[in-house]
Design a protein that fits this description.
Largest sheet: 4 strands, mixed
Shape: elongated
Radius of gyration: 18 Å
Distance between the termini: 21 Å
Number of strands: 4
Number of helices: 3
Order of helices and strands: HEHEHEE
Length: 136
């Protein structure tokens, strides 16, 4: 199979050969309906596509952070963000990512309101970060 080598910036030829840019940080955001931790077909597709980007790379860590907006009480929002993170982590594992690499956390509505009192939009989500490296 033929390949194409593209040199850019100040990289040397050798650095370009040993560094696989596909194995850099991959991130995605999975959005949810209000008061829901259910994944729709679009979210499942995005999770599968995100996991597929790890193909051929070593998965060093999978960060999964559940978030909630500032609507409602803090305790239910924390539980909701935990449920969202768990749902996405399960889907990532089903898509083939190694569960041992997962760091799953929930922030609830922490930082959902800016210091000036304005709500931060689009907090009904889970942030995914795949920390990848080139296999040895």
């Amino acid at each position: 199979m033929a390949g194409v080598l593209v040199l850019s910036g100040c990289q040397t030829w050798r650095e370009s050969l040993t560094r696989d840019s596909r194995c850099d940080l991959v991130s995605a955001e999975i959005y949810f309906e209000p008061d829901s931790a259910d994944l729709g077909p679009e979210a499942r597709g995005l999770i599968a596509a995100t996991a597929q980007q790890a193909a051929g790379c070593t998965v060093d860590r999978v960060d999964v952070l559940g978030l909630a907006d500032a609507t409602g009480a803090p305790e239910p929002n924390m539980a909701l963000s935990q449920a969202r993170a768990a749902t996405v982590a399960q889907a990532l594992a089903e898509a083939g990512l190694p569960e041992a690499a997962f760091d799953t956390q929930a922030a609830g509505q922490l930082n959902a309101v800016r210091p000036d009192g304005v709500d931060r939009p689009m907090r009904r989500r889970v942030d995914i970060r795949l920390r990848l490296s080139t296999p040895d």
